[in-house]
C-alpha cells in the first residue's frame, strides 16, 4: 500500500439531540483505511459503530451534527453538498446494512433495486444493466439469477437477500465497502458463507472494506486491521493479528473473553462483561470503560486517555493496559 | 378463497338491504305522500286516498317494501309515480354528472394530498411542513356547504374564472365541462385533501426511516426518485383504504354541491324526490349508491395486491 489512505477519519464527533439530551454517539474517532485494505470495527451494542458508519456516509437524519473530517481520497465528505455526495454514494462508497430483510424495498423487484444504481451512475442501458446484474448475482452465488431478478425480496431467503445486497453494493465497482453487521440477522450456518463471500469479493475486486461487528470472531480472519470502539471512542487500534494475539485494552480483553467458542450458539447475545454500556448522553469522565473495569488506577477518571503506541501497528487508550504490571513497567509480551 | 368471496357478497347484500330499509323507514316518518304532491295542496282527501290505492301506498309498509325488493332484485327499480319515468333510466341520466364530480374530486384529493404529503414529509418540522399542516387543518374544518359558497364567491364572482353555477356537458367541449366541474369538485375535496395528507404524511415519515430508504439513498439515488419510487408506494396502503371509503363520502358530498351549484346529478334527483315524497325514486338512488359503495370497497381490497406483492402472494396461496 502506497500513498495516502483511501479513507481518513479525523476527530469525528457525531452528536444527536434527543428529548433525553444530546446523544454523543461518536465522540472523537480517528480511522485509516488503505486502498484494498479491510478494517474491522468492533464494539458492544450501543458503542456507536452504526452511527459512525452512517456519519462517514452522511446518511444520518438532518438533526444529527457531525464535526471533524472524513477524508475520502483527499476530499472531506462532511463538507460536500447533497448532489456531490450522491455522486460518491453507490459509485465510490457502497454500504451493506445489518438486516437484509429490511434493507431491500419489499415492493420493488430485485432487478430494479440491483440495476437502478448502475443505470444512474454508469448510464447503462436496460439490457446491459440486466446482463451486469446477472453476472453479479452469479458471482455472489445466487442460483437461477434470471428468475431471482423478477422476484420480490420476500420471495428470497435471508442469506440470498444478503447476497443480493452484496451484489448491489458491487454494482458500480466501489473503492470502499462499508458493511454494518452484515450477518447479525442471519442463521449461524449462513453467517460464515456470507462473510467469506464478502472477504472474497473484497480481495478479488481490490475494494477497501469497513467490516462492523459486535463479534470479534467475525473480523478475526477477515480484516487486516481492527479498531475497537467503546461508547463513541476508540479503545484500541492495530493490526488484527496483533490485537488478537496480545489485546492491550482491558475492554478488548473482556470482549475477547466474551467471544463465544465454536460450541457456543453465536446468536445468543453474550453479555459476559459485567455492568452496562456507558450512557451516551452523560458519559463518565475519563476512560468511559472505567466504571466497568476491574483494573482501574487513580488516573482513569481524569480526562483522556489518548491512544498510545505500544507496537508496530498497535495503539491503545488505557492507563493500565494488559501487559503492563500494576507497578507500571512494561512486561514481556 | 371462494368461501370468503361468498361471505363477502352475502355481507354486502345485507348492507345494501339495511341501507334501503333505513331510507324507506325514515321517509315514511315524514308526513304527506306523493299523492298530495301529484294532486296538489287542494285535493280532496278522497282523491288522495284513491291515488294512494292506485299507487299501492295504502298497503302496509313491509309489503310495499317486499314488492319493491322482489322487483329490484330482478333489476327493475320501478317507475316514478311523479314523473312516470323509469327509475333506472332516471339514475342513468343523472349518473354521468355525479360520477364525474366524484371521480374528479377523488383525483384532486389524492393528487393534491400526495403532493402536500411529499413536501411536508421530506423535512418534517421545518417551516414548509408547518405551513402545509396549518393549511391542512384549516381544510379539515371546512365542510362542502361552506367551501362551496366561498369558492363561488372568490373564483366565480370575483375572479370570473369559473361559471357561478350550471353544468356544461362533455359534448359542449372538455374545457367548458371541466370548468363547470372544478369548483364543485374542489369544494367537496378540501376535507378529503386534509385527511389524506395527514395520513400519508405520517406513513411517509415512517417509511423514510426504513433501512431500505437509507439503502436507496446510499446507492446515490436522488431524493425525488427515492421519495416516489421507493417510499411512496409502501406508504400508500392505508391511503388507498381511506380513499376507497371516501369515494362513498364524496358521492354523498356531491349531493350537497350539486344543489349549491345547480348541477343535474343524482344529488338533485334525490333531493327533488325527497321533497316530493317519491319513495320509489329515493329507494332506487339510495340502493344504487349503496351498491356502488360496496363494489368500490371490494375493488379497493383487490387493489392491495397490486400495491403490495406480499399480499398478492398470500392471496394466491
Ligand atoms: N437516530 C438516533 N437518534 C438518537 N440516538 C441515536 C440514533 N441512532 C443511534 N443513537 C444512539 O447512539 C448510540 C450508538 O448507537 P449505534 O447504533 O451506533 O450503536 P452500535 O454500536 O451500532 O450498536 P449495535 O451493535 O446495537 O448496532 C446509542 O446510544 C443509540 O441509542
Ligand atoms: Mg449498529
UniProtKB/TrEMBL annotation, chain A:
Any GO MF annotation of the entry: ATP binding
SMART domains: AAA
Main location: membrane
Membrane topology: Peripheral membrane protein
Domain of life the protein comes from: Bacteria
Domain ABC transporter: 7-256
UniProt cross-references to PROSITE patterns, sorted A to Z: ABC_TRANSPORTER_1, ABC_TRANSPORTER_2
Keyword terms, alphabetized: ATP-binding, Cell membrane, Membrane, Nucleotide-binding, Transport
Gene3D superfamilies: P-loop containing nucleotide triphosphate hydrolases
Keyword presence, Transport: yes
Localization, UniProt: Cell membrane
Pfam families cross-referenced by the UniProt entry: ABC_tran, oligo_HPY
Protein family per UniProt: Belongs to the ABC transporter superfamily.
Name of this chain's protein: ABC transporter ATP-binding protein
From TrEMBL, chain B:
CDD domains: TM_PBP2
Subcellular compartments: Cell membrane
Regions crossing the membrane: 12-30, 103-127, 139-161, 237-261, 281-307
Domain (ABC transmembrane type-1): residue spans on this chain: 95-304
Pfam family, one: BPD_transp_1_N
Protein's membrane topology: Multi-pass membrane protein
Gene3D superfamilies: MetI-like (1.10.3720.10)
Domain of life: Bacteria
Location (main, coarse): membrane
Keywords: Cell membrane, Membrane, Transmembrane, Transmembrane helix, Transport
Entry similarity comment: Belongs to the binding-protein-dependent transport system permease family.
Protein name, UniProt field: ABC transporter permease
